[in-house]
Design brief:
The protein is α/β, with parallel strands linked by helices. The chain is built from eight helices and 32 strands. The chain folds into two domains: 388 residues, no CATH class; 32 residues, no CATH class. The N terminus is likely disordered.
Length: 516
């Protein structure tokens, strides 16, 4: 088993983040050495099928997603078709032979219960403005938006759906925008008592890697945060920071990957969220049930998935969330000083029942899972149901973090989650990633993984009593000033989005399975 130990030196400080997740050193080192030499052909167990997953894995995920689909009624409205390569700007989009070219126009044309099928390509909104919306982001009225279903991964002729082969992306490049990559609002008017609506987002890739601001990689300059030659970029540069080295990208503030303000029957599945600089998914959930399943979250900042309840206290029992069969890796903290955030999944408030199961949480810089606390309502805190069971953890700083009011957070390892009274009534089966999962370890981008496992933070302080500022401060009796430099060897560097696809189906029944 491997642990990275925290080391703190005096003026020049080198701090190694302490990752309590116990990743087998033998398997990890083998993966780091062998990944560049050979392709991984075996799976974890069972007979390997044509799609690269074991038959037991396929059977399990088929049951999982069929169950999810049965909970979300099929759309009964029109079906629109969108293709970036074969579509037309003036087409009606109502048949596979007359697809629209712009996903935003299809959303604008759709009504409640309509379905939109999207072919491979990169979709950036009207005139490539860099984002897509269904309802206005930040609109507080909540009485807006549409209950629609969007499915990516189609071939240009719509004869085949394969989200691995026919990649449907929202991947902005040089756009400077302050909005989520995709915002969707779906709310009924206040006082509405009719049937719930349905929202489905399935088979899309959300990637901000071409738009974020990074240092150009340079292993010879510590300030760039380049852990090795194999990573794509130097470290991420926080909005508003001053820079002294060459950069690449166009960051212009904090943006979500997918932002939702929804209610009813909601499902987000078979998606990839990579390099999102302000949450992979950030959602507000009204009455109803949300299911987040079979997704990959990798190299996101703040948190991979955060869903808050958005109802009156009396309606909280009518809000529920399932987060399952997701792979959550390399979630980064809010700043390069690693002070806060950096959670894979957060048990947020305003939701009565949250079930988190059959996920893989690995290499998250704060914790795999955080259980948030009701600070001002003891009765709702007691009634909150936070089920966490049958998950794999590895190389997280903390596997589970328990937040509490006015006290230090509590760090809980996977093997001791059953002792956490805030979790339950289902808490069984949480484990460190078992041995024998080399296929999964080797599917992770190896330079990125190696850089993370050797992560260190260099801190230095300086004080010049004769500086002009300190001389003036002494005259007026003010505090003397010094400076502190924090230089992590790696922080939120760009992850290759193509490699994220390789993580589907690598561990039978845990993490994201091969999409059907």
């Amino acid at each position: 088993m491997r642990k990275v130990i925290i080391k703190i030196l005096a003026v020049a400080v080198v701090a190694m983040l302490s990752f309590s997740g116990q990743l087998q050193a033998q398997n990890l080192l083998k993966g780091l050495k062998d990944a560049a030499k050979k392709a991984v052909e075996e799976t974890v167990s069972g007979v390997t099928g044509n799609n690269g997953t074991s038959s037991s894995s396929n059977s399990a995920v088929s049951g999982v997603l069929n169950k999810a689909a049965s909970a979300v009624p099929a759309p009964k409205g029109k079906t629109y078709y969108v293709s970036a390569t074969t579509g037309s700007a003036r087409a009606d989009g109502l048949s596979p032979t007359t697809p629209m070219k712009d996903l935003q126009k299809a959303i604008d044309a759709a009504s409640d219960n309509d379905e939109i099928r999207v072919a491979e390509g990169n979709y950036l909104g009207n005139l490539d403005r860099g984002y897509i919306e269904c309802g206005k982001f930040g609109d507080a009225s909540h009485d807006m938006g549409k209950f629609i279903s969007i499915y990516g991964g189609y071939s240009p002729d719509f004869n085949e759906r394969d989200i691995i082969k026919h990649v449907t992306k929202i991947q902005p490049t040089d756009q400077k925008f302050i909005a989520p990559l995709f915002n969707i609002n779906a709310r009924r008017p206040i006082g509405y008592t009719g049937p719930m609506g349905t929202v489905v987002i399935d088979g899309l890739v959300f990637d901000m890697g071409e738009n974020n601001l990074y240092f150009v990689k340079n292993v010879n300059e510590d300030v760039t945060g380049t852990p090795n030659e194999g990573v794509l970029t130097g470290r991420f540069i926080e909005p508003g920071s001053s820079v002294s080295m060459p950069t690449v990208g166009y960051a212009n503030g904090d943006e979500y990957g997918l932002h939702m303000d929804v209610e009813g029957n909601v499902r987000v599945s078979n998606c990839i969220f990579v390099n999102c600089r302000d949450y992979g998914i950030q959602a507000l959930m009204g009455k109803g049930h949300m299911e987040v399943c079979n997704n990959i979250f990798i190299a996101c900042r703040y948190a991979a998935c955060q869903v808050k309840g958005n109802v009156k206290d009396a309606d909280i029992p009518e809000v529920s969330l399932d987060f399952h069969h997701n792979t959550v890796l390399f979630t980064w903290t809010r700043t390069k000083t690693f002070e806060d955030m950096g959670q894979g999944f957060r048990f947020m408030n305003g939701i009565r029942t949250i079930n988190v199961y059959n996920n893989i949480f690995g290499c998250n810089s704060n914790c795999g899972v955080e259980r948030v606390f009701y600070e001002s309502n003891a009765s709702m805190e007691k009634a909150k149901i936070s089920n966490l069971y049958d998950n794999y953890f590895f190389a997280n700083k903390r596997d589970l973090e328990l937040a509490s009011s006015g006290a230090a957070t509590i760090s809980v390892s996977a093997s001791r989650i059953d002792e956490a009274e805030q979790i339950g009534p289902k808490y069984e089966g949480n484990k460190d990633l078992p041995e024998g999962n080399d296929a999964f370890i080797n599917a992770i981008d190896q330079p990125y993984l190696e850089g993370f496992m050797s992560l260190k933070i260099i801190q230095s302080q300086s004080y010049n009593p004769n500086s002009a500022a300190n001389q003036v401060n002494r005259i007026f009796g003010l505090n003397q000033q010094g400076s502190e430099i924090v230089r992590p060897s790696m922080y939120c560097n760009k992850y290759p989005w193509e490699k994220a696809k390789d993580l589907f189906g690598k561990v039978a029944n845990y993490g994201a399975q091969m999409p059907k």
